[in-house]
Amino acid sequence: MALRASCLCQGIALEIHGPVHNMLFCHCSMCRKAHGTAFRARGRVRTADLRWTRGEDLMRFYESSPGEHRGFCSVCGSNIFTKFDARPQELGLALGILDDDPGGRPACHLFVGSKAPWYEISDALPQHEAFPPGYAPSPAESGDA
């Protein structure tokens, strides 16, 4: 069964035919600014598992750091996914676009040292100053990503 995902204006719709893994909350300044909120809820999917149902032509990309391209809808501005030059087989998925329950849940908070000062993390998930142990970031993600 595929997971459905779409943007705010419904111009972009896609299906994910595989698991969403490495789900987490990122508090880095770039994620906060890109999403306009205290943190980004994100996961990873295999590029081969993504199927467009409409709106691929509406996608635009911004290279937020070398080799990291944040994709968004050109109509409504919804963040969709991030492409990594060093890891073309994987995409960083904005969990907020999911229309279905992915089954898993975010496992931790990262880059908590640069979190919004007005936000208090109130859950019991582990908190990390950088990437958690065992997480394999792409070269573009090595820092305040």
Structural account:
This protein has 145 residues and is mostly beta strands. 5% of the residues lie in helices and 37% in strands. The chain contains one helix and eleven strands; from the N terminus they run E-E-E-H-E-E-E-E-E-E-E-E. A hairpin with a 6-residue loop joins strand 1 and strand 2. The longest helix is centred in the first third of the chain and has 7 residues. It is globular and about 40 Å long.
Helix content: under 10%
Major beta sheet, specifics? 8 strands, mixed
Strand order of the largest sheet: 6-7-8-9-4-3-10-11
What is the global morphology?
A: globular
Radius of gyration: 14 Å
SSE string? EEEHEEEEEEEE
Number of helices: 1
- The portion of residues forming beta strands comes to 35-45%
Ends apart, CA distance between termini: 31 Å
Mean pLDDT: 91
In total, how many beta strands?
11
